[in-house]
Amino acid sequence: MITGIKGTRFRRAAAVTVTTGAVLAAGAFGAAPAGAVTTPTIAAKGGYVMNNGTGTTLYTKAADTRRSTGSTTKIMTAKVVLAQSNLNLDAKVTIQKAYSDYVVANNASQAHLIVGDKVTVRQLLYGLMLPSGCDAAYALADKFGTGTTRAARVKSFIGKMNSSARSLGLTNTHFDSFDGIGHGSNYSTPRDLTKLASSAMKNSTFKTIVKTQNTRQKATTKSGGYRYYDWENTNKPLLTGYSGTIGVKTGSGPEAKYCLVFAATRNGKTVIGTVLASTSITARTSDAKKLLTYGFAR
User: Fold this and answer.
1) By CB distance 3.0 to 4.6 Å, which of 100, 124, 141, 185 could disulfide with 176?
2) 156 is catalytic
Protein backbone atom coordinates (compact mmCIF):
# COMPACT_ATOMS: atom_id res chain seq x y z
CA MET A 1 0.00 0.00 0.00
CA ILE A 2 2.77 2.37 0.95
CA THR A 3 4.58 1.49 -2.24
CA GLY A 4 1.48 2.35 -4.24
CA ILE A 5 1.21 5.76 -2.62
CA LYS A 6 4.82 6.53 -3.44
CA GLY A 7 4.27 5.43 -7.01
CA THR A 8 1.20 7.63 -7.31
CA ARG A 9 3.11 10.64 -5.98
CA PHE A 10 5.87 9.99 -8.46
CA ARG A 11 3.46 9.77 -11.39
CA ARG A 12 1.77 12.98 -10.32
CA ALA A 13 5.12 14.76 -10.06
CA ALA A 14 6.07 13.50 -13.50
CA ALA A 15 2.79 14.75 -14.90
CA VAL A 16 3.35 18.19 -13.37
CA THR A 17 6.86 18.26 -14.85
CA VAL A 18 5.58 17.38 -18.32
CA THR A 19 2.81 19.96 -18.08
CA THR A 20 5.24 22.66 -16.91
CA GLY A 21 7.58 21.76 -19.73
CA ALA A 22 4.78 22.05 -22.24
CA VAL A 23 3.81 25.45 -20.88
CA LEU A 24 7.43 26.66 -21.06
CA ALA A 25 7.75 25.28 -24.57
CA ALA A 26 4.63 27.17 -25.54
CA GLY A 27 6.28 30.35 -24.31
CA ALA A 28 3.71 31.14 -21.66
CA PHE A 29 6.46 32.71 -19.52
CA GLY A 30 7.98 34.64 -22.40
CA ALA A 31 10.47 33.23 -24.88
CA ALA A 32 13.96 34.72 -25.01
CA PRO A 33 14.11 37.44 -27.67
CA ALA A 34 15.89 36.60 -30.90
CA GLY A 35 19.63 37.08 -30.63
CA ALA A 36 19.62 37.21 -26.82
CA VAL A 37 22.73 35.87 -25.13
CA THR A 38 22.82 34.28 -21.71
CA THR A 39 24.81 36.30 -19.20
CA PRO A 40 27.89 34.22 -18.34
CA THR A 41 28.80 32.98 -14.88
CA ILE A 42 32.42 33.66 -13.94
CA ALA A 43 34.67 32.42 -11.15
CA ALA A 44 36.07 35.88 -10.48
CA LYS A 45 34.60 37.97 -7.66
CA GLY A 46 34.53 41.05 -9.84
CA GLY A 47 34.22 41.74 -13.55
CA TYR A 48 33.51 44.48 -16.06
CA VAL A 49 33.35 44.59 -19.85
CA MET A 50 32.79 47.46 -22.24
CA ASN A 51 32.72 48.24 -25.93
CA ASN A 52 36.06 50.02 -26.36
CA GLY A 53 34.82 52.10 -29.27
CA THR A 54 31.68 53.49 -27.64
CA GLY A 55 32.44 53.09 -23.94
CA THR A 56 29.14 51.23 -23.54
CA THR A 57 28.99 48.90 -20.54
CA LEU A 58 28.35 45.30 -21.60
CA TYR A 59 28.76 43.36 -18.34
CA THR A 60 29.17 44.06 -14.63
CA LYS A 61 29.80 41.98 -11.51
CA ALA A 62 30.83 43.93 -8.43
CA ALA A 63 32.35 46.30 -10.97
CA ASP A 64 32.94 49.11 -8.47
CA THR A 65 34.14 47.03 -5.52
CA ARG A 66 37.73 47.90 -4.60
CA ARG A 67 40.12 44.97 -4.66
CA SER A 68 43.84 44.29 -4.72
CA THR A 69 45.04 44.39 -8.32
CA GLY A 70 48.32 42.45 -8.32
CA SER A 71 50.47 43.06 -11.39
CA THR A 72 47.64 44.63 -13.39
CA THR A 73 49.04 47.70 -11.58
CA LYS A 74 51.83 47.62 -14.17
CA ILE A 75 49.43 48.95 -16.80
CA MET A 76 49.63 52.28 -14.99
CA THR A 77 53.40 51.93 -14.56
CA ALA A 78 53.75 51.65 -18.34
CA LYS A 79 51.23 54.43 -18.97
CA VAL A 80 53.13 56.88 -16.75
CA VAL A 81 56.42 56.08 -18.51
CA LEU A 82 54.90 56.44 -21.97
CA ALA A 83 53.31 59.78 -20.99
CA GLN A 84 56.69 61.38 -20.22
CA SER A 85 57.45 64.43 -22.36
CA ASN A 86 60.28 63.98 -24.86
CA LEU A 87 60.44 60.27 -24.05
CA ASN A 88 63.37 58.45 -25.62
CA LEU A 89 62.47 54.76 -25.75
CA ASP A 90 66.04 53.91 -26.75
CA ALA A 91 67.63 55.63 -23.73
CA LYS A 92 69.65 53.12 -21.73
CA VAL A 93 69.16 52.34 -18.06
CA THR A 94 71.83 50.59 -16.00
CA ILE A 95 70.41 47.78 -13.90
CA GLN A 96 71.12 48.32 -10.20
CA LYS A 97 71.63 45.72 -7.48
CA ALA A 98 68.68 47.23 -5.60
CA TYR A 99 66.30 46.00 -8.32
CA SER A 100 67.60 42.47 -8.10
CA ASP A 101 67.60 42.47 -4.30
CA TYR A 102 64.00 43.72 -4.31
CA VAL A 103 62.57 40.86 -6.37
CA VAL A 104 64.50 38.28 -4.35
CA ALA A 105 63.32 39.75 -1.04
CA ASN A 106 59.71 39.81 -2.20
CA ASN A 107 59.79 36.52 -4.12
CA ALA A 108 58.36 38.58 -6.96
CA SER A 109 57.86 37.88 -10.66
CA GLN A 110 60.87 39.15 -12.56
CA ALA A 111 62.48 39.77 -15.93
CA HIS A 112 65.75 38.36 -14.51
CA LEU A 113 67.62 41.56 -15.27
CA ILE A 114 71.36 41.27 -14.62
CA VAL A 115 73.07 43.91 -12.49
CA GLY A 116 75.27 46.19 -14.61
CA ASP A 117 73.46 45.49 -17.88
CA LYS A 118 72.39 48.50 -19.92
CA VAL A 119 68.79 48.03 -21.03
CA THR A 120 66.69 50.47 -23.05
CA VAL A 121 63.45 51.98 -21.78
CA ARG A 122 61.60 50.10 -24.53
CA GLN A 123 63.17 46.83 -23.39
CA LEU A 124 62.25 47.56 -19.80
CA LEU A 125 58.63 48.02 -20.91
CA TYR A 126 58.72 44.58 -22.53
CA GLY A 127 60.29 43.18 -19.36
CA LEU A 128 57.55 44.87 -17.35
CA MET A 129 54.55 43.71 -19.37
CA LEU A 130 55.52 40.26 -20.69
CA PRO A 131 57.18 38.34 -17.83
CA SER A 132 55.68 40.89 -15.41
CA GLY A 133 59.08 41.90 -14.13
CA CYS A 134 58.98 43.72 -10.81
CA ASP A 135 62.69 44.42 -11.35
CA ALA A 136 61.81 46.19 -14.61
CA ALA A 137 59.08 48.14 -12.79
CA TYR A 138 61.58 49.25 -10.15
CA ALA A 139 64.06 50.34 -12.83
CA LEU A 140 61.40 52.41 -14.60
CA ALA A 141 60.19 54.03 -11.37
CA ASP A 142 63.78 54.90 -10.45
CA LYS A 143 64.43 56.29 -13.92
CA PHE A 144 61.28 58.39 -14.29
CA GLY A 145 60.65 59.55 -10.74
CA THR A 146 62.27 62.76 -9.54
CA GLY A 147 64.44 63.23 -6.46
CA THR A 148 68.00 62.92 -5.19
CA THR A 149 67.53 59.48 -3.66
CA ARG A 150 66.10 56.26 -5.06
CA ALA A 151 63.39 56.25 -2.37
CA ALA A 152 62.40 59.80 -3.29
CA ARG A 153 62.27 58.94 -7.00
CA VAL A 154 60.10 55.89 -6.38
CA LYS A 155 57.73 57.91 -4.19
CA SER A 156 57.56 60.57 -6.89
CA PHE A 157 56.78 57.97 -9.56
CA ILE A 158 53.96 56.45 -7.53
CA GLY A 159 52.64 59.98 -7.09
CA LYS A 160 52.53 60.30 -10.87
CA MET A 161 50.57 57.04 -11.05
CA ASN A 162 47.96 58.44 -8.68
CA SER A 163 47.83 61.77 -10.51
CA SER A 164 47.18 59.90 -13.74
CA ALA A 165 44.42 57.89 -12.06
CA ARG A 166 42.75 61.10 -10.90
CA SER A 167 43.03 62.69 -14.34
CA LEU A 168 41.29 59.64 -15.83
CA GLY A 169 38.50 59.91 -13.26
CA LEU A 170 39.37 56.60 -11.61
CA THR A 171 37.79 57.44 -8.27
CA ASN A 172 38.09 53.91 -6.85
CA THR A 173 41.78 53.49 -7.63
CA HIS A 174 44.89 54.13 -5.56
CA PHE A 175 48.47 52.99 -5.93
CA ASP A 176 51.07 52.60 -3.20
CA SER A 177 53.51 50.58 -5.32
CA PHE A 178 54.98 50.64 -8.81
CA ASP A 179 54.32 46.95 -9.46
CA GLY A 180 51.32 45.76 -7.44
CA ILE A 181 53.23 44.51 -4.40
CA GLY A 182 51.11 46.75 -2.25
CA HIS A 183 51.53 48.08 1.25
CA GLY A 184 47.88 48.02 2.26
CA SER A 185 46.61 50.75 -0.03
CA ASN A 186 46.99 49.47 -3.60
CA TYR A 187 43.56 48.88 -5.08
CA SER A 188 41.26 49.41 -8.03
CA THR A 189 38.02 48.04 -9.47
CA PRO A 190 37.11 46.12 -12.63
CA ARG A 191 35.53 49.26 -14.10
CA ASP A 192 38.48 51.52 -13.30
CA LEU A 193 41.09 49.06 -14.58
CA THR A 194 39.16 48.62 -17.81
CA LYS A 195 39.05 52.39 -18.31
CA LEU A 196 42.78 52.59 -17.54
CA ALA A 197 43.58 49.86 -20.06
CA SER A 198 41.38 51.49 -22.68
CA SER A 199 43.35 54.72 -22.27
CA ALA A 200 46.72 52.90 -22.31
CA MET A 201 45.79 51.02 -25.48
CA LYS A 202 45.64 54.33 -27.35
CA ASN A 203 49.44 54.38 -27.21
CA SER A 204 50.89 52.44 -30.14
CA THR A 205 53.98 51.29 -28.21
CA PHE A 206 51.88 49.94 -25.37
CA LYS A 207 49.50 48.22 -27.79
CA THR A 208 52.39 46.57 -29.65
CA ILE A 209 54.00 45.31 -26.45
CA VAL A 210 50.93 43.79 -24.79
CA LYS A 211 49.94 41.70 -27.80
CA THR A 212 53.47 40.25 -28.15
CA GLN A 213 53.64 36.56 -27.19
CA ASN A 214 57.43 36.20 -27.01
CA THR A 215 60.38 38.51 -27.51
CA ARG A 216 64.18 38.30 -27.60
CA GLN A 217 65.94 41.49 -26.57
CA LYS A 218 69.66 42.21 -26.94
CA ALA A 219 71.21 44.17 -24.08
CA THR A 220 74.70 45.53 -23.42
CA THR A 221 76.57 43.95 -20.51
CA LYS A 222 78.69 45.71 -17.91
CA SER A 223 81.87 44.58 -19.69
CA GLY A 224 80.70 45.98 -23.03
CA GLY A 225 79.57 42.71 -24.54
CA TYR A 226 75.97 41.69 -24.98
CA ARG A 227 73.41 39.18 -23.84
CA TYR A 228 69.90 38.19 -24.90
CA TYR A 229 66.82 38.30 -22.73
CA ASP A 230 64.05 35.92 -23.76
CA TRP A 231 60.65 36.83 -22.36
CA GLU A 232 57.27 35.12 -22.69
CA ASN A 233 53.96 36.86 -22.09
CA THR A 234 52.15 35.70 -18.93
CA ASN A 235 48.94 36.34 -20.89
CA LYS A 236 49.88 33.77 -23.54
CA PRO A 237 46.98 31.41 -22.70
CA LEU A 238 44.53 34.10 -23.84
CA LEU A 239 46.68 35.48 -26.67
CA THR A 240 46.97 32.02 -28.22
CA GLY A 241 43.63 30.64 -27.07
CA TYR A 242 41.15 33.29 -28.16
CA SER A 243 41.07 34.62 -31.71
CA GLY A 244 41.49 38.38 -31.94
CA THR A 245 43.08 38.90 -28.51
CA ILE A 246 45.27 42.02 -28.39
CA GLY A 247 46.23 42.13 -24.67
CA VAL A 248 46.40 43.22 -21.92
CA LYS A 249 47.87 42.16 -18.52
CA THR A 250 47.74 39.45 -15.90
CA GLY A 251 48.02 39.87 -12.16
CA SER A 252 48.15 37.59 -9.14
CA GLY A 253 49.00 37.55 -5.48
CA PRO A 254 47.93 36.23 -2.08
CA GLU A 255 45.35 38.98 -1.69
CA ALA A 256 44.60 39.72 -5.35
CA LYS A 257 44.12 36.03 -6.27
CA TYR A 258 44.08 35.80 -10.09
CA CYS A 259 43.37 38.89 -12.17
CA LEU A 260 43.28 39.64 -15.88
CA VAL A 261 42.71 42.76 -17.93
CA PHE A 262 41.85 41.64 -21.45
CA ALA A 263 40.97 42.98 -24.89
CA ALA A 264 40.16 41.52 -28.29
CA THR A 265 39.12 42.82 -31.68
CA ARG A 266 36.81 41.04 -34.10
CA ASN A 267 35.21 42.48 -37.24
CA GLY A 268 36.30 45.97 -36.28
CA LYS A 269 34.77 45.80 -32.79
CA THR A 270 37.05 45.89 -29.74
CA VAL A 271 35.82 44.53 -26.43
CA ILE A 272 37.86 45.29 -23.32
CA GLY A 273 37.39 44.18 -19.73
CA THR A 274 38.74 43.05 -16.39
CA VAL A 275 38.27 40.18 -13.96
CA LEU A 276 39.56 40.47 -10.40
CA ALA A 277 39.98 37.75 -7.76
CA SER A 278 39.41 34.73 -9.94
CA THR A 279 40.31 31.29 -8.58
CA SER A 280 43.23 30.18 -10.78
CA ILE A 281 45.21 30.97 -13.93
CA THR A 282 42.95 28.65 -15.89
CA ALA A 283 39.81 30.18 -14.39
CA ARG A 284 40.80 33.79 -15.13
CA THR A 285 41.49 32.87 -18.76
CA SER A 286 38.18 31.04 -18.99
CA ASP A 287 36.41 34.02 -17.40
CA ALA A 288 37.95 36.38 -19.97
CA LYS A 289 36.97 34.13 -22.89
CA LYS A 290 33.37 33.93 -21.67
CA LEU A 291 33.14 37.68 -21.20
CA LEU A 292 34.73 38.47 -24.56
CA THR A 293 32.33 36.12 -26.36
CA TYR A 294 29.44 37.69 -24.47
CA GLY A 295 30.69 41.18 -25.29
CA PHE A 296 30.97 40.45 -29.00
CA ALA A 297 27.44 39.03 -29.03
CA ARG A 298 25.96 42.13 -27.41
Assistant:
1) 185
2) no
